[in-house]
Amino acid sequence: MVIAMKTVELAPEAETFVRVCAALGNPTRFRILEILSRNPESIVADIVAELPIAQSTVSQHLAVLVEAGLIYGRDADGGGRCCLIDPQALGQFVLRVVAWSHDLLAGAACKMEVTP
Question: How far apart are alpha carbons 98 and 115 in whole angstroms?
Fold first, then answer.
């Protein structure tokens, strides 16, 4: 028996958020962002040197991060491809998480019992 799944419609900004969450849900991609946050403008070779995986695999992970909008690349001065975190995209992600936290805290404050 096959159960038909309903599709949940999302606003475009929510779809972007879901892509970012999916990209960050992979340990290697999470680690790549950690590397880039410590060493902005790292070239691909620098990232490969810090990870125990092949350059081709790193490139695949970088492509997912680019597709999610978290990073972008440009040609480096000394050769190679420079990778940078997109601060605006990361900021939008953080703002959504902060908004959820705010909503949760506001709701929790209303439900807290006061003991005399």
Answer: 29
